[in-house]
């Protein structure tokens, strides 16, 4: 499930787009290994990095980045070339617990960890323009 939320900042200028993905079936530690490699990169660089990395966590993160960028371009009219990943975080979700039957009537627990991923894309073109306006404004 992917939830999207827009953050309105700087006098009705939207420069950040949020996207959430909840209950991904992998541990947060494995997802953080991939997320640390793409934090701060541009959108196009991020897609290339995620396509070439050999980890299983890359595909759900790739889908989330792609979805957030499509949402930013469709709903807010941003150019995908101007987007960078300003924040991305991975939090631990619930753990799915099952019992696996074993020999002689015993059972062993199986734990499937899940994680939640939050991504924030920022439009650097609007961010630089806002910094320039605030630097030379007198209000």
TrEMBL record:
Primary localization: plastid
GO terms of molecular function: rRNA binding; structural constituent of ribosome
GO cellular component: chloroplast; large ribosomal subunit
Lineage top rank: taxon: Eukaryota
Nucleotide-binding recorded as keyword: no
Keyword RNA-binding among record annotations: yes
A Pfam family per the record: Ribosomal_L22
CDD domains noted in UniProt: Ribosomal_L22
Assembly mode: Part of the 50S ribosomal subunit.
Function: This protein binds specifically to 23S rRNA.
Name this protein carries in UniProt: Large ribosomal subunit protein uL22c
Gene of this entry: rpl22
């Amino acid at each position: 499930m992917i939830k999207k939320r827009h953050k309105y900042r700087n006098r009705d200028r939207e420069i950040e787009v949020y996207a959430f993905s909840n209950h991904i079936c992998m541990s947060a530690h494995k997802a953080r290994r991939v997320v640390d490699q793409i934090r701060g990169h541009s959108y196009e660089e991020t897609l290339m990095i995620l396509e070439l990395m050999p980890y299983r966590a890359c595909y759900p993160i790739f889908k989330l980045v792609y979805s957030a960028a499509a949402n930013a371009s469709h709903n807010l009219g941003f150019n995908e070339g101007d987007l960078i990943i300003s924040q991305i975080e991975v939090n631990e979700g619930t753990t799915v617990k099952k019992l696996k039957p074993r020999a002689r009537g015993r059972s062993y627990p199986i734990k499937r960890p899940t994680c939640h991923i939050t991504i924030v894309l920022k439009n650097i073109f609007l961010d630089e323009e806002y910094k320039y306006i605030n630097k030379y404004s007198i209000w």
